[in-house]
Amino acid sequence: MALLDISAPRSASLRPFNLFAFAARTAALYRQRAALRRLDADALRDIGISRAEATAEAQRPVWDVPHNWHN
Questions:
Q1: Which of 27-31, 35-39, 66-70 is predicted least confidently?
Q2: Any idea what the Cα angle at residue 53 is, between residues 51 and 57, rounded to 5°?
Q3: Where do the YjiS-like domain residues begin and end (predicted)?
Q4: CA–CA separation, 65 vs 40, rounded Å?
Q5: What's the whole-model pTM score?
Q6: Lower CB count within 10 Å: N or C terminus of the chain?
Q7: Interior CA angle at 17 toward 16 and 22, to 5°?
Q8: Residue 46 within any structural domain of the chain
Q9: Range of the domain at 49
Q10: What are the distances in angstroms from CA 38 to CA 30, 32, 35?
Q11: What's the pLDDT score for residue 25?
Q12: Is 37 within the bounds of a domain?
């Protein structure tokens, strides 16, 4: 009889919480959204978003991030 070894990738929900990494990601997100808020009309046009879109993104709460950021 052969030995069968099956393993599954560890899911993101099982990873231990890292307070320092969380704080760093949160601070980076705050800086990015603050920078977006400060862009002028020419810079917004260069990146292809409107003032309303930039304002909406900048006002999102810190926990409202893309799903892939949770990994």
A1: 66-70
A2: 115
A3: 24-54
A4: 24
A5: 0.64
A6: N
A7: 145
A8: yes
A9: 26-63
A10: 13, 10, 5
A11: 87
A12: yes
Q: Are 57 and 33 in contact (CB under 8 A)?
A: yes
Number of domains into which the chain is organized:
1
Residue 38 is which amino acid?
R
The tokens describing 4, both together, are 């069968």
DSSP of the chain? --------PPPGGGSPP-HHHHHHHHHHHHHHHHHHHH--HHHHHHHT--HHHHHHHHTS-TT---GGGG-
| Alpha-carbon span 15 to 47, nearest angstrom | 35
Q: Which has the closest alpha carbon to 60: 20, 30, 17, 16?
A: 30
Under 8 Å CB-to-CB from 57, ≥6 apart: which residues? 33, 36, 49
Instruction: Look at residue 16 and tell me if it is in a domain.
Output: no
Rounded to whole angstroms, what are the CA distances from 16 to 11, 13, 39, 55?
Answer: 11, 8, 37, 34
